[in-house]
Amino acid sequence: MNEQTNKEIRYRPGNSADDYDTFLIFEETLADLVQRLGFTGDMSWGDETQLAEMWQVRRPLYQHLSQTAEQFWIAELDGQTVGFARSVIHDGVRELTELFVKPGTQSAGLGRSLIERAFPKEGAHNRFIIATSDFRAQALYLKAGVFPRFPIYYFGRPPEQVSFESDLQFVPLQADSDLVVLNEIDADVIGFRREVDHRWLLANRQGFLYVRNGRPKGYGYLGRNNGPFALLDAADFPAVLAHAESAAATAGRAEFGVEVPMVNETAVTYLLSRNFKMDVFMAMFMSERPFGNFDRYIATSPPFFV
User: Fold this and answer.
1) What sign has the CA pseudo-torsion 260, 266, 269, 273?
2) Which tens digits make up the pLDDT trace of 16-69?
3) Does the pLDDT at position 6 exceed 60?
4) Which residue in 219, 244, 268, 279 could disulfide with 154, CB within 3.0 to 4.6 Å?
């Protein structure tokens, strides 16, 4: 049976009809975590206008996550959604994209039950998650068999036009003709192909292929949110990031920001030299086994998937 009952909690497979409820769970849980960690700043939760605006921004992402999920489970209490978990799998690598439980119902075994359903070991040769720093979640993920590899920090600043010299060409990505190239770059940099994500990114962000002497050397995506960026040579990050910041300035964006694995020393050094500010909120990349070359990578923002 797909539906399972544990006391008053009912677990069922999720679908696209659950998108808004899962969005609300995420926003409430994030606001609770931020408060518990002592961070300050504007949050959508508690402001109906901001929450409605954020939903319009995030709706395409939630649609993509629900439509491409390998496992998607909802926890209900008295008919109300109180938690959910979701994962995707690409080339045998499974990523837990989300695991959130409504404040007030946490620490009641919900997280464990959801992760068992959405993030099994079977059927994957490696698993990973971009996790929050919440110690309760960390303990849950460690018990699930994934371990910290490196932190990911958001770097941001008001964008400016940046002069730079590079022999790279910045070629706009084409939706269909460039997918093979993107898959090859991903296989080299992150260790797996994920064509379905590129199709979504191409439809929702401006993509660039970075070319040198007629050969692809990487790619990157720009927009209201930026990333991912994957390069065959980390030395190209200063030029790529200067190009991206300049594009953000031209577009009149209030901020340009990127989610940077802290093993990417070249990107971190460059961003600090440009006086980018590190956000106090940190994510942790956790996996069963080390994989990929994340010193040549910048993650998707927001980091629901790598």
Assistant:
1) negative
2) 999 999 999 999 988 888 777 666 556 676 778 889 999 999 999 999 999 999
3) no
4) 279
- What CATH number matches the domain at 4-145, 3.30.390.10, 3.40.630.30, 1.10.40.30, 3.20.20.70? 3.40.630.30
| pTM of the complete model | 0.93
- Check for a shared fold between 4-145 and 155-279+289-298: yes
pLDDT tens figures, 213-245: 999 999 999 999 999 999 999 999 999 999 999
CA–CA gap between residue 211 and residue 262 (Å, rounded): 25
Domain-wise residue ranges, the chain: 4-145, 155-279+289-298
What topology does CATH give the domain 155-279+289-298? Answer: Aminopeptidase (3.40.630)
User: CA–CA separation, 248 vs 224, rounded Å?
Assistant: 9
